[in-house]
Specification:
The chain is of the alpha+beta class and 272 residues long. 35% of the residues lie in helices and 12% in strands. The chain starts with a helix and ends in a 7-residue tail after the last strand.
């Protein structure tokens, strides 16, 4: 019994010795061969919000900080940080740059429970991505929101909720990170300028009669908005109205002319 105990103690001592030796070796390697982090990069990283949303075009805040440190990126690409972050980065880097254009995510669908219906009963995984793989999803409109909330689950600022069967985005909470845009399998969420005055609440590319059959609120491509707009800000492409936000003045003529109500005035710029 004593001999077994001795063998156990020897084995334990060997393992501990190896662990200590490896720790010493790792410390030496880190000390003599490690690459010191650029202090400028650390300062830049401290200015960024740390959301790692990718809206700047880089994988995350660390990659964006590295690009800023080596001078290969502009300091006005952080959408969530907006003007405050841009100003802080400009001051740190000693450069001047415009703040990023303020944008907000918007759901181009008004196919609520009263306006549309389901073509089938779906009893699978409760995600939009999974449901869309089964014949395009259970909704009668193949272009509409399915309401399972993939976008809401991904939103880092709890700006999205599912109400009356479709996703709704609170513009006062939206930080413009674009994460929800990539989560929607129907591509009904897009980024629009926060200064926008009107939006198209539809994503259907079907012809008017077909679109109307599956959703009472659908755009029917009648071109009344296109003909009414005094600035040529609206065109109908592929059976769907589209707004040129640079030309739109917010006169409201298109909203009044739309027979299905798919054009709406929006208060995005009222964000406090």
């Amino acid at each position: 019994m004593t001999e077994i105990l001795i063998h156990i103690l020897i084995a334990f001592a060997v393992v501990v010795s190896i662990g200590i030796l490896m720790g010493i070796l790792l410390a030496l390697v880190s000390r003599f061969f490690g690459i010191e982090e650029d202090p400028k990069r650390k300062q830049i990283r401290a200015c960024l919000p740390g959301i790692n949303c990718g809206a700047c075009g880089y994988k995350g805040c660390d990659d964006y900080a590295a690009a800023l440190a080596d001078g290969s990126a502009q300091p006005n690409l952080c959408v969530p940080g907006a003007e405050d972050t841009a100003n802080a980065l400009c001051a740190l880097l000693g450069v001047e740059a415009e703040a990023p254009e303020a944008s907000v995510a918007f759901v181009h669908c008004n196919g609520n429970c009263e306006a549309t219906s389901q073509k089938a009963i779906y009893d699978g995984i409760s995600t939009c991505k999974a449901a869309s793989m089964l014949y395009g999803g259970p909704e009668a409109c193949r272009f509409g929101c399915m309401g399972f909330g993939d976008c809401a689950a991904a939103c880092p600022n709890n700006a999205i909720c599912i109400k009356d069967g479709i996703a709704h985005i609170d513009p006062s909470r939206c930080i413009g990170c674009k994460i929800c845009v990539g989560q929607c399998p129907k591509s009904i969420i897009s980024m629009v300028p926060r200064e926008s005055k009107a939006v198209v609440m539809c994503n259907s590319k079907d012809k008017g009669a077909d679109a109307r059959k599956v959703c009472k609120n659908a755009c029917i491509g009648c071109r009344k908005c296109e003909k009414t707009c005094p600035n040529g800000a609206i065109t109908v492409q592929n059976n769907l109205a589209r707004i040129d936000y640079e030309k739109c003045t917010g006169c409201g003529a298109c909203v009044s002319a739309c027979p299905t109500g798919c054009l709406k005035s929006v208060p995005f710029s009222d964000r406090s």
